[in-house]
Write a structure and sequence with these properties.
With 335 residues, the chain is mostly helical. The chain has a single domain, classed as Na+/H+ antiporter like fold (Up-down Bundle). The chain is 79% helix and 0% strand. Helix 6 runs antiparallel to helix 13, helix 10 crosses helix 15 and helix 13 packs antiparallel against helix 15. The longest helix has 32 residues. The mean pLDDT is 83.
Length: 335
């Protein structure tokens, strides 16, 4: 009983984070019919800055890190990204009223990563004094890119065979290369390359890092407003998406926490790293995924996969998932 009470206390404490407050605030003002609009240009700039900041920081830390320490967490991140997509293909896609390409696109978003969710978790861990390896945010592309590419490949293979017959061979490499050209993935990969191959420490410390939390608060506010707005879209498609979106962040995150714990025992992966790996797996892409999947799977219904991710998946991941995994980490590791 005391253990449960301690967990619930830690969980409620995490809900008071400023990052979560902006998300919830956006949902509240949208619910009251506020006409507040944040220009799309500001949203795109905030997204670019967050991805560049995460990429540059990750590249800098990978450059200085022992590659042996990174290999197992990176392998787990890749397995999680692909595994989530495959799990969605054999579960959500077979439910009544669910189109296969819509289900694959939805699983692709949930297998990919939310930069805003990751950024919010990083801020919360710093506020709580929970340390983690500085290269852990660089696990983002190890999960995000394979998940999106696998979803695109599975959807295109399914659609091509449905249209032309099951014996048709689908060229996969062009699908992969086109996916890597997306604006969000390009920004993240550029940041990683700059952090790895150059010495951007000064511009990072003077420009990218100081703006990080302010831009994150703007992005959280936008996400809250959009989450409430897209609830209407989600009502127009099968309710299975709502159930999937509510459960997937927690299930995926708990599986990732377990794998992170294995890495902790095997390589000394930090408790903060385990928590961030769980947050990565529990998040659903709000930046790189939607435009990538819109272009690559045009027949999929955005109301299904974006509605599920934005209106339910992201709020659950941030408002419930992050506090849950932080509280679980504090309980398991005694931090």
């Amino acid at each position: 009983m005391d253990l449960l009470l301690d967990f619930l206390t830690r969980f409620v404490t995490q809900l008071q984070s400023p990052a979560l407050a902006f998300l919830i605030g956006g949902m509240v003002i949208a619910a009251f019919g506020s006409k507040l609009e944040i220009p799309d240009a500001i949203y795109k700039f905030a997204v670019f800055m967050l991805l560049m900041r995460i990429g540059i920081k990750g590249g800098m830390e990978i450059r200085e890190a022992d590659l042996g320490d990174i290999l197992l967490p990176a392998a787990f991140a890749t397995v999680l990204g692909c595994g989530i997509v495959l799990l969605g293909r054999v579960t959500l896609a077979v439910l009544p009223g669910v189109k296969t390409e819509d289900a694959i696109a939805t699983a692709g978003l949930f297998g990919a990563v939310s930069a805003s969710t990751l950024a919010a978790a990083m801020v919360i861990l710093e506020q709580d004094g929970i340390t983690y390896e500085a290269w852990v945010p660089a696990l983002y592309p190890f999960m995000d890119i394979p998940a999106l590419i696998l979803a695109i490949v599975l959807a295109n293979v399914y659609l091509t065979k449905r249209k032309r017959g099951s014996d048709v061979r689908v060229r996969i490499w062009p699908i992969v290369t086109e996916s890597l050209r997306g604006s969000a993935l390009s920004a993240l990969l550029l940041g990683l390359a700059l952090g790895l191959l150059t010495r951007p420490d000064q511009i990072f410390e003077q420009f990218y890092d100081p703006l990080f939390r302010g831009l994150l608060s703007i992005l959280m506010l936008i996400m809250g407003i959009e989450a409430y707005t897209r609830l209407n879209e989600l009502r127009r498609v099968a309710h299975w998406y709502a159930i999937y979106a509510a459960l997937a962040p927690l299930v995926h995150g708990l599986v990732a926490f377990g794998l992170g714990y294995i890495a902790h025992l095997a390589t000394g992966f930090s408790p903060g790293g385990v928590i961030l790996l769980a947050v990565l797996a529990g998040s659903s892409s709000d930046i790189s995924g939607p435009p990538t999947l819109r272009a690559a799977i045009p027949t999929a219904n955005p109301s299904a996969y974006i509605g599920a991710s934005t209106s339910i998946g992201t709020p659950v991941a941030i408002a419930i998932g992050i506090p849950l995994f932080v509280a679980l980490g504090q309980m398991v590791f005694g931090i």
